Amino acid sequence: MKYLFIILSLSLLAIAPFFGQIDIDLSKINDITSVEYKLFWDLRLPRVVVAFFTGALLGLSGLIFQSLFRNPMSTPFTLGVASGATLGTAFAIVFNLVSLIALFGFLGALLTIIILFGITSRLKAFETSTLLLVGIALSFFYSAALMILFYLSDETQSYEIVRFTMGSLDVVGFANTLPIVVVSSSLLLLAVNYKKEIKLLLTSYENAFLKGIDVKRVNTLLLVSVSIAIGVAVSVTGPIGFVGLIVPHILKTIYKKSADRLLMPIFFYGGVFLVLCDLISRNLGTTSDIPIGVITSFLGGPFFIYLLVGRKRA
Amino acid sequence: MLRVTDFSNSILTDITFHLNDGENLIILGSNGAGKSTLAKVLCGISYSNSVELFAKELHHLSAKNRAELINYIPPKLEIFDEYISLREFLELSRLDSKLTIEESLEFLGLKELEHKACITLSSGEQQLTMLASALLHNAKLTIFDEPTANLDPQKTLKVAKILAGDKIKSRIIITHDLNLAHKLGYKILYMSNGKIEFFGESKKFFADSSLEKFFGSSLKRIDEYFVVNL
Questions:
Q1: Candidate from A202, A210, A258 with C-beta closest to B71
Q2: Percent of chain A beyond pLDDT 90?
Q3: Predicted ipTM?
Q4: Nearest CA of chain B to the CA of A221: how many Å?
């Protein structure tokens, strides 16, 4: 069963770049002068790469946040990091700084992280729930600020903001996939490196402390790293909700293993999930792609509820 | 080995005492007297700058050094992740012990439970699991918080033997079980309302006059055993 899933997933990843609105003539993808070459190497393949690494990053981030905050609802999105990035981006759009959109998105996320951890440093090591509340309060504040920006913007700008908040995996060329590939791989390396610490934190904070873990340092390191990675991802793709929430839950239900042993599976299947969602969004036959966030929520929501209910019954 | 100087917080008042190398301690006191609070101060979970361990100030120790010196076994096993198994929990607990996981499982009779998730174990099995973790952690000083609470007589006897045995280095045992305290014969620290009411030799504490003072008519002595006077 497990191997079947891996094989299915790998084949999905392999075929994903070949499907889209325009059919690709396979004989031409190595012909530099053809449209197919550009379409395949500059658009399709980078897009699949971005989808995979973004999904992987979102899944892994969700797992880490849920583990550290002891709360199944917490993801970098509930903490306001994504809202911060969205606000930054909207700001750039409204004030005609379009060339700096990614930078502003990242700054928005970074600012949120600085606020969050400025506050955490005043708290004791075990009060992570306060941080979650602060994150939620910040999200509301950002939504209000975003409304003001909508009010100030003209029609095209409003459309652009809406489009951004729905998330998009449009990337042109491999160079633009690099930031996401680098941050998500680094986060995976970090998490694997801190596997034992994460596992100890999964028993209880007190137990981790007694076993010689510097709880506050490890917590801060992991949370800041996740937040920075998310900041980078959101500035490239926009906020893609739900992946970070459901992928860890789904895999926990299936694997029935402690979270530290799910780091690799969640990274892999988080990526596969987003590639699948993207494949669907590109092939529904509409004139333009349906935003990826719509698909993730549309597919993920019902499936997630099904799993939760099924699990209760079992 | 352990020195607490003039510690107070919202629950504890003027806590001062010390233990010499190789000494063990029993902490007694009514519910809510501050025993567990004191234990958390001693092991550093509650921050203070009044605790000295093996001639070093607790709050200046690195996390790793601290773990080698002191460990605290809480009254209940708390585990967040529902899938961590007994064996995995013990693997996490083994710091620098000569004892292997296998030996500890055999020793406490937990072998057939090793792959069960910790949260599905019964309270008695969880107590034994925590005891196994204490042996594997093997800190220079271990604080046991009510290690025999909620155990059947057979398990109580087993735990009592281990608590008295040489598999543990120095120990502080918080308990309500006066028989256990009496049999172990360690120094006694009796607390009430966050204050130390008695600190001294076991013999002195178990003299009729002091028992009368601390427990009044609620306690009855039958030979060398103590029962609640129902």
A1: A210
A2: 30
A3: 0.93
A4: 16
